[in-house]
Amino acid sequence: MDLKEDALELHKRNRGKLCVQSKISINKENLKLVYTPGVAEPCIEIARDKNKVWDYTFKGNTVAVVSDGSAVLGLGNIGPLAGLPVMEGKAILFKELAGIDAFPIVLDTQDTEEIIKTVKNIAPTFGGINLEDIAAPRCFEVEERLQDIGIPVFHDDQHGTEIVVLSALMNACRVLKKNIADLTVVISGAGAAGLSIAKTLQCVDINKQICAPINNLILCDSVGIIHKERTDLNESKAKMLMYLNRENKKGGLKEALEGADVFIGVSKPDVLKPEMIKSMNENPIIFAMANPTPEIMPDQALKAGAAIVATGRSDFPNQINNALAFPGVFRGALDTRSVRINSEMRMAAIRALAGYVKNPERDQLLPPVLDKNAVGVVAEAVKKAAIETGVARV
């Protein structure tokens, strides 16, 4: 069977990938403890002191993976039911890599206010909220307005992508002996991931801990290069103009890549052509991360002269995937009962993930996704940053 048939057969055979399993084997003797009448005792204690919910329930080790199905992988607005397999997949990665109990929750609404209200209403059950596959610009407002609900709310398409891309770029520069500050970087895709990567590359408070902001950053959306004369930009894109396109280039991806050092793709399949790579600077870095089909296949990119090629897929070498970030980030946040995940915690994750690979190579910039030791290193860095910045409760 091919990949399509194998994937469908696995999901059908197992009727999904997730189940609920009890921590306790119930018998006649302990039934009185796990349910009535004994279950009333922790209820009474929590009613007296709400903080005891962390001691007596699973709240402190649970994450809701919440999506409205509006931006699923590279498949677009396919809706909540079609997005459910992805959320199940995220949930099992949380469990397998970080020991976190995660629950997929897909919402039958794409209304900003309804999403915010629903997340607030379910928050008492969980220790954290992983927002997933919510389209831009709605995703930015949803995440921002949920920052003060008392538990971490983290949009993985933004920040998980930002963490793994910046970590990989740091290590690519180590391999090629390039200075990240001197690079011209082109990002294809101005949705949640593209805008978040751009902000992280240019925000001084974060980049002080890496280097100076990069030499030049060009962001392309479906229309073309974002530049100062564009009148069709939404608020999120327009706010980025102060950081972008120093030379005010115009045109499409082809024009953007002429003389560039790095291509970061978080857009759609097959938009990067071999001739575009040939027009880039010497030893170009290509991160083609559209899923499930990248902007260019690795063999084509290498043949066109790319020095380093990475994708988001697990069946190609050099995977750059959010699964290297979100399990460790949430593990660190949950272990400290943090009220939010701030930029310092994200920056700590970037440095930890990049530094974990002592000797990066052209075809291995980051650790394998299933490396649980990497999860632990990221978690420890996040915990330390949470404590130092005062968002930890323990």
Topology:
Blueprint lengths: L2 H12 L16 H4 L5 H9 L4 H4 L5 E6 L11 H20 L2 E6 L5 H11 L5 E4 L6 H8 L7 E3 H21 L7 E5 L3 H11 L1 H4 L8 E5 L14 H5 L13 H5 L4 E4 L8 H5 L6 E4 L9 H6 L4 E4 L14 H10 L7 H14 L15 H18 L5
Parallel strand pairs: 1-2, 1-3, 3-4, 5-6, 5-7, 7-8, 8-9
Helix pairs in contact: 5-15, 6-7, 8-9, 8-16, 15-17, 16-17
Question: What features would you highlight for this structure?
Answer:
alpha/beta, single chain, Rossmann fold, five-stranded parallel beta sheet, 394 residues, four-stranded parallel beta sheet, 17 helices
Brief characterization of the structure:
With 394 residues, this protein is of the alpha/beta class. The chain contains 17 helices and nine strands.
Describe the structure.
This protein is an alpha/beta fold and 394 residues long. It has 2 domains: 138 residues, 3-Layer(aba) Sandwich (Rossmann fold); 239 residues, NAD(P)-binding Rossmann-like Domain (Rossmann fold, 3-Layer(aba) Sandwich). It has a 5-stranded parallel beta sheet. Strands 2-1-3-4 form a 4-stranded parallel beta sheet, with helices on both faces. Helix 14 links the parallel strand 8 and strand 9. The protein starts with a helix and ends in a 5-residue tail after the last helix. About 2% of the residues have low confidence.
